[in-house]
């Protein structure tokens, strides 16, 4: 069966130990992201199996209608809004889910917190320009770190914060807030309290219909001028245009961002990149060697099992019939 791996713009997949699992199979790796469905369909026209790297390509009904040979989509990590599961089922395309780990994204979120609060990138850039001690950062000790979304990643961030001597304030569902209290942390009584009292807010929500644009411009306006917003989850959690406008208005005063509405970004004039109070990283929360091996080993295992007529981890089993 013809297998195509999409969006490997780092040329990383073939270097993974897990890639050896596909030895002897007909595998093509696409090293760029194609946003045009017509062009993408042409590239995939003979593919019977495609392997997705997280959410880099949207699988829509329009695309699926152009791929009559496609039988399986093997997802690295869990499925999300980039996959139209109903359309996959309609076109008899099975979707195999993978597994993930909170370790790499948690560490990246914490690194952004540290770099943004202490203003490390700005200090480094200053030295590169022949300047010395151009800014004064701050410490984590004594600050209130607000965590919206108390799942595996949010819980890990809370533990990091505790070690650094910060107060943890959790917002989210009632169950999440109660779990935070059970774990020895504080819960916010309202969203207004959460945004106004936190020195650092980090978002760790799943993106779905109920969370799309859940962070409003008015929420950001409640933040302190000295406060930091960290987003390593999904750009669309924030109301469109609200972050940039709020940063320009000085609330919050700083941001650390790893996710964007349109990716990848090659435009050096992208506005957030030009703001001295913003630290940007190119969606690398999950881009880490151990995570890649974990993601792809499971994705390739699902591929091999499907080829051997033993499909595993199928999110829409009705598509198999």
UniProtKB/TrEMBL annotation:
Keyword DNA damage: no
SUPFAM superfamilies (alphabetical): Formate/glycerate dehydrogenase catalytic domain-like, NAD(P)-binding Rossmann-fold domains
Superkingdom of source: Bacteria
Domain named D-isomer specific 2-hydroxyacid dehydrogenase NAD-binding: residues: 111-285
Keywords: NAD, Oxidoreductase
Residue ranges of every copy of the D-isomer specific 2-hydroxyacid dehydrogenase catalytic domain listed in the record: 18-313
One Gene Ontology molecular-function label: oxidoreductase activity, acting on the CH-OH group of donors, NAD or NADP as acceptor
Family: Belongs to the D-isomer specific 2-hydroxyacid dehydrogenase family.
Protein name: 3-phosphoglycerate dehydrogenase
């Amino acid at each position: 069966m013809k297998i195509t791996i999409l969006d490997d713009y780092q040329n990383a997949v073939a270097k993974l130990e897990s890639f050896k699992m596909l030895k002897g199979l007909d595998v093509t790796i696409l090293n760029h992201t194609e946003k045009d469905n017509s062009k993408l369909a042409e590239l995939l026209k003979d593919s019977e199996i495609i392997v997705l790297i997280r959410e880099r390509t949207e699988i829509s009904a329009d695309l699926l209608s152009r791929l009559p040979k496609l039988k399986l989509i093997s997802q690295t990590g869990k499925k999300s809004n980039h996959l139209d599961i109903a359309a996959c089922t309609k076109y008899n395309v099975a979707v195999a889910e993978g597994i993930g780990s909170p370790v790499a994204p948690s560490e990246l979120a914490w690194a952004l917190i540290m770099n943004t609060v202490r203003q490390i990138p700005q200090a480094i850039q200053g030295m590169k320009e022949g300047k010395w001690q151009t800014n004064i950062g701050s410490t984590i000790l004594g600050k209130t770190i607000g965590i919206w979304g108390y799942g595996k990643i949010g819980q890990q961030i809370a533990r990091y914060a505790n070690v650094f001597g910060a107060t943890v304030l959790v917002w989210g569902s009632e169950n999440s807030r109660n779990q935070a209290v059970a774990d020895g942390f504080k819960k916010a009584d309202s969203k207004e309290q959460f945004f106004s009292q936190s020195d650092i807010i980090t978002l760790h929500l799943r993106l779905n219909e109920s969370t799309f644009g859940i962070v409003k411009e008015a929420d950001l306006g409640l933040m302190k001028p000295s406060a930091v917003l960290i987003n390593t989850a999904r750009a669309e959690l924030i109301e469109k245009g609200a972050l940039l406008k709020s940063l320009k208005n000085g609330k919050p005063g700083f941001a650390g961002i790893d996710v964007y509405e349109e990716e990848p970004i090659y435009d050096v004039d992208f506005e957030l990149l030009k703001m001295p109070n913003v630290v940007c990283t190119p969606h690398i929360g999950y881009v880490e060697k151990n995570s890649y091996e974990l993601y792809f080993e499971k994705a390739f295992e699902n591929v091999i099992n499907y080829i051997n007529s033993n499909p595993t981890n199928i999110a829409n089993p009705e598509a198999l019939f």
